[in-house]
Amino acid sequence: MRAFVALNIIIGVRQLPRLENYWSTDERFGDPYVSSILTKTRFMKINQYIHLRDTSNAPGRNDPNHDPFFKVRNMIDLILPKLREVYKPGQNLSVDEGMIGFKGRVHFRQYMPAKPTKWGIKVWQICESESGYCCGFEVYTGKKRDGTRQFGLGYDVVWSLSETYHNQNRHLYFDRFFSSVTLAEHLELVNTYVCGAIMANRKGIPDEVKKAKLKQSGQLIQKQKGNLVATAYKDKRQITFLSTCAPPGRDETGRPHVNTSYNKRMGGVDKLDQMCSYYPVGRSGTKWWRYIMWYLVNMVIVNAWIVFQKSVKDPVPPKGYDHLQFRMDVADQLMAGYTSKKYRVGRKTKMCNKPIALQSIKHHELVKIEGRKRVCRENEHEMKITMYILYGPPLPNPYPIL
């Protein structure tokens, strides 16, 4: 299984049009390294029958204990705690949604026209702003059955993803889908501060900011209540911000502090998605849960690369050691020299590839089995070689078939 995962990592590095091309005898397509690890038949069979859980006892859709992610739940529960155990992120965290590309049939598939990947499975993520390290995630399954969301979906997503980092003086950055005055006030109660764009018509925004009609670039209106600062700023277009961690006023560039801070630290999730897109793991198919499985494997590899960069202080890796080389080293360690390619003695291998003078004709005795009319194929092959050595090439048939 480790060799199977390693090969999927390697296949993501060198992508060919079809999966069968990696075992092709055509030099333009074939990959001798991949074919030396697992045979095509073995790889295809593992890929066909791979499962993470026994689904025979899965609760039905009408069962109160139904879990939409039953097939990958054990993998999610294994990875989530480790993301927080192995690495302690910095002060600034960003929250945003990502997409796992999937065009098949599943009831929680989403369509987001503004995203590069428009069709797929939506994943809420919280990442370190500077590096893109994923600290937590949550796969979106659609509306709740009971439909109870007291403060809205954006509030619940940010609160659940950041709950581990409450009371640690963290700064959260998110876009206007998640922002609300209620969320900013509640997070401030647990010593967690926010900065993000917000829709101007959200409840709690001052009327001066809500109804502002700024015409010239650089115009600014700000209103403050405690640490909560609402900002309307005209750049190429008018933008509204809400912040509890950025001071009012402008910085040395003439922009509001909240705008500069937001632009600098909002892209943590985008950095993660960018690094994951370089070398995607796994191949396309029809089963939705496999897309989640390979996405998690890919995300964990990116996280490991980020931790590796931050933990290695001495110049142990050679100069120029990058993300690509790191992935190949991970694949090599997973395989640990494993190979399933065996050179078996068959009808046209050992006996036919060696010179006749070096062939042994005694290692396989001719044995007649009672009840059988023909001897085995190996016996037939060796018998022909024996006759050739003893009597030379066969004579032409004196009675040709007309």
From TrEMBL:
Residues 1-305 form the PiggyBac transposable element-derived protein domain. InterPro entries: PGBD. PANTHER family: PIGGYBAC TRANSPOSABLE ELEMENT-DERIVED PROTEIN 4 (PTHR46599), PIGGYBAC TRANSPOSABLE ELEMENT-DERIVED PROTEIN 4-LIKE (PTHR46599:SF2). This is PiggyBac transposable element-derived protein domain-containing protein.
